[in-house]
Amino acid sequence: MTSPTESPAGTGTSTGGPDHRRRLLIGTGAIVAVALVGVLLATVFGGSDDDKRPEAPVVRPLALTSPVDTSGIIGVDGQPTQPPQADLDAILAAVTGYLKDATVTPLSTLPDDGVTTTAPAGNPLAAHFGPVAAGSLQGTEIQALSDAHLGFAEGGVATEKLTVALAGIVQDGATQYVDATIDVLMVVRGDQDVTIARTGNLVLRPLDGSWKITAYRIDVTRTIGSETTTSEAAFG
Amino acid sequence: MIQRLPTRGWVAGGVAVAVALLAFAFTAADAQDETIEIYKSASASNSGTPDPIFIAIVGTDDRPGVSGARADAIHVVGVNQALGKATIINIPRDTHVEIPGHGRRKINESHTLGKAALVSETLTTLTGAPIHFVITTNFEGFTNIVNDVGGVAIDVPYGIEDAAYSGASVGAGPNHMSGEAALAYARARHGTPHGDFSRTSNQGLLLVSALAQVRGNPHGPLDLSKQVAILLRHLKTTNGVTTADLYSLARIGVTIPHDEVDSITMPGASGSAGGASVVIPSAEAGPMFADFADDGVVQNPPPTDSAGNTFP
After folding, report:
1. Do A232 and B10 touch (CB under 8 A)?
2. What is the nearest CA distance from B85 to chain A, expressed in angstroms?
3. pLDDT tens digit sequence for B150-196
4. Which fold has domain B20-150+215-295?
5. Which domain does A147 fall in, by range?
6. Complex ipTM
7. Dihedral angle sign, alpha carbons of residues A97, A98, A99, A100
8. Does some domain include residue A157?
9. Which residue of B has its CA nearest to A151?
10. How many domains does one find in chain A?
């Protein structure tokens, strides 16, 4: 699993004195020396093919490619309204959490990381669904809801598009439910690139303190070269 | 390594659910004032719509000058969301059943005696299916709803002339009924081949026709949310029906393909009890209810005549 490289932040003391520059040069020199030794050892002793493991794929984080559309959120009076920010944050976290566990995580998890790369037992997606809808996560249904069966993507996963439009009702200061229309386009790099277009609706409501998917209708189109497959999953 | 995808057809996932009257109700205009009531029973959870889900649709004769509203039309809709199928069981109003706490009576008295809660209990006793929601409307509500959506198109299997009682006057074949005409058609017992059985079957036909029409209206997430908001302003909700429940039910109602809905009238025979004319469920009714209760779908419906009536 590739972790994004984080840039250090907040280190901002001023620099530039002669002692500081000297320490900097010494430190840099030490790092270069260690690196050269490493290269030399690798050159001398080499490595067998058996030691090779797949490189961690380059994963483009799952993130909205345009701002969430909340124009479908209305009050009981039927007029557009904004959902409470805390609700909106929680809803988006639930939607992206599902998509991450359905697509990015299984596709970008190295086989020897201890995570199976085919549809695992004890479906991890269930945590994102309400108890009734979770009961439908089986058989062919799950192949539309998840890309886990595709296996590890050596070349990485890129999310080219992720848009979310919400419709729902805010009542008594709280969002009662949302129907999230999603449009996701991902490219999975491998021997042959796979393009995955996933569209549809996720209906979410708050259950026991977190937002869960209680109904869904998802269409998936996967394209490998000239071959295209489609599948659909729906519940509720 | 990316595995090659097997070529797959469409996963059977067309979620089909039948809450035709509710879906109809959701399209009603603001004029509705507490003519629609939704009751949520203890068997319905708050964690999403159950699967299968069972919904009773009840039309009462509540109107000016009539007290103690009885259930004039009683239908139980079973929806199997996983299978994408639904079944409407039409119960003749004179069906002689055990009403919990009140002995054997006509089923239409259950509403008089205990409103939606007792209707729910009675239907569960009769069918074995847990009734999750009861949707009730009256003559005025039904008429307004149909008028508000511009009437309903229905292919009538046989003509009915019943000016003396229900006021129904309809020819066989395609009809477009106003609210008043639809109500008369739904109430007509005289001038039909099999009396109460025919009336009950015709009500089921009306529901399926309404469903087909509603599905033709815009029903995207915002459309449905606006309709739920209208309903919230005018609905008499009881016993914990949530806004999310209403949206789920509305969504179920409009996503059902009407050709995946079976409308079956309870098989039974005319009889008498205590000097009153009643309907006695026939021997076929028990197995049919058991089949219905286990997954919301009746696999082997009783045979019907050309008009869709099921009776011995």
Report:
1. yes
2. 12
3. 788 999 999 999 988 889 999 999 999 998 998 899 888 888 888 88
4. Nucleotidyltransferase; domain 5 (3.30.420)
5. 69-235
6. 0.73
7. positive
8. yes
9. B2
10. 1
